[in-house]
Every structure is written in structure tokens, then in C-alpha cells.
Amino acid sequence: MADNQPLVYTVREAAARLKVSPWTINRLIQLKELGSIQLGARRLIPYADLDAFIARLRNEQDPLEAHRG
């Protein structure tokens, strides 16, 4: 992790990073697809969890699969 990388993201920040809506982030959290922590009333997504989610998506997608008949 880079020194300037935050330890956690808010739901809105995570949504902005992935270019999706906050609703999508909350749904991923509900489905246990994306890890998060509760701090008081705030829901936060650790950088490591967001990074792992992206890596998992990369590994699950086979670019050749879309071109097979």
C-alpha cells in the first residue's frame, strides 16, 4: 500500500473509486462480497478489502470467455 493511500474509505469514496453508486457498495456489503467495518454509525471499507475485491474480480473474469461461442 502506498503511503498516501487511506486505510479506509467511506461508502461514497469506495463508490467513487469503483465508479458505481453507493447503493451498489451497500449491496456488495450485504451480500458479503465486499468487506467493511462499522465504526459508530459509519460503515467503512478498508483499503485492503477494496483492493482484494478488485483482484478477485480480475481473477474471476476470463477475457477469452466473452469471445467463445
Describe the structure.
The protein is an alpha+beta fold and 69 residues long. Helix content is 45%, strand content 16%. It has helices at 11-18, 22-30, 47-60; strands at 8-10, 37-39, 42-46. A three-stranded antiparallel beta sheet has the order 1-3-2. α1 crosses α2. The longest helix is centred in the last third of the chain and has 14 residues, at 47-60. The model has no long low-confidence stretch (mean pLDDT 89).
Output the helix-strand order: EHHEEH
- Number of DSSP helical runs: 3
Number of DSSP-assigned strands: 3
What is the topology, as strand order, of the major beta sheet?
1-3-2
Q: Based on the structure given, which CATH architecture is correct?
A: Orthogonal Bundle
Mean pLDDT equals 89
Class per helix and strand makeup = alpha+beta
Distance between the termini: 40 Å
Write a compact overview of the structure shown:
This protein is an alpha+beta fold. 45% of the residues lie in helices and 16% in strands.
